[in-house]
Amino acid sequence: MRSEHLFRTLDTIQTQVRAFDTKAQIVLGVDGIILGFLSLNGATIGTAIAKRFPNCLAIGLSLAYIVALLTLVFSLYYVFATVRPRKDFGQPTSRLFFFHLTSRYEYDYETAKKDLAAMTEDELGADLAEQILANAHVCDAKSNCLNRALFWLELSVGAWVSTLCAVVFFAAIHGW
């Protein structure tokens, strides 16, 4: 019974880890849309601004590059959020963690089968408890990095919208 409870707890935390991965992928998709728009339309927007407002070209392009830079920072945070938590958080060697299993047994299936089948309920419970804490660290790291990535994404979307508003504002003033 104790192991079943620990397995459910571990599964709950791993579900939260997967949820953060999914959210990060969605935010990365939004980031890609913004970068794609700027890459495909940056020259066209810059040329249009330069034709009507020569003095505004530098401002428009600067804002566009700031947006690109901020989304690049976001992308780095996303990479950081997905790569960093996969490190070992100082947990003891586990018979449940895939990296420890493959390091310990490599391709020796017979020894792995014997060792894993010989685990007592207490050993399994202790290993599960350690995995719960290790996965909680992973989840916490992903949460922190995703929050930072969302901050940078919001900032880059704000800069992008500000650029569009500035172009519309200058166009309205000068009758574009």
Shape: rod-shaped
Which radius of gyration do the C-alpha atoms yield?
Answer: 25 Å
Number of strands: 0
Run of helices and strands: HHHHH
Question: How would you classify the helix and strand content by structural class?
Answer: mainly alpha
Q: Indicate the proportion of strand residues.
A: under 5%
Provide structural commentary.
The protein is built from 5 helices and no strands. The longest helix has 54 residues, at 121-174. The termini are far apart. By secondary structure, it is mainly α. The radius of gyration is 25 Å and the shape is rod-shaped. The protein has a domain at 2-87 and 139-174. Helix 1 (2-52) runs antiparallel to helix 2 (57-83) and helix 1 (2-52) runs parallel beside helix 5 (121-174).
In short:
This protein has helices spanning 2-52, 57-83, 98-105, 109-117, 121-174. It is mostly helical and 176 residues long. The protein has a domain at 2-87 and 139-174.
